[in-house]
Each structure stands twice: as C-alpha cells, then as structure tokens.
Amino acid sequence: MSKEYNGWNNYATFRVANDILNGITFEDSVTIDDLKEIVRDVVFSNASGHYLLTDYANSFLEKVDWDELVEVYNTDILADKLNLQSKHED
Description:
4 helices, mainly alpha, elongated
C-alpha cells in the first residue's frame, strides 16, 4: 500500500496529525468522534463570524482519513500499554 503524503493517505490527514494531534498523549483508545471533537475545537475556537474561513476549514476536514488516524493512535496506545506491562513483568 503506497502512502500519498509523508506516510499518510493524503495531505489533509498528514496536516491534522502533524499540526493538531501531534504531541497529544491518549491513555485510552480513541474514536473518530473523539479526534473530530479535538480537531474542531482547535480549528474553530476563534472562527466565529468568519464564514469563508469556516467553509474552507470544513471542506479541508472532510478530506481527512479519520479511520487512518484512529488506527494509528489506537495502535500506539496498545503498544504503549503492552510495553508498560512487559516492563512490570520483568
């Protein structure tokens, strides 16, 4: 499977992962709705009254591969938990 942009399915997914979700540590599994809520809070927190900006942002966010993001973050969470468990078992 070939990745289209810097290892992600598309540019929008890369930008959301890199610019908004990068650095957030999730302790439990996440859902698409969880990620969308975080992203929308960040993107639209200061956009009131800027309808053109809001329309463009919504169009961009529709292109995000939310399934890919959820898979990546949930895999990372599971790997972290397994790594912690194996450290405690030693």
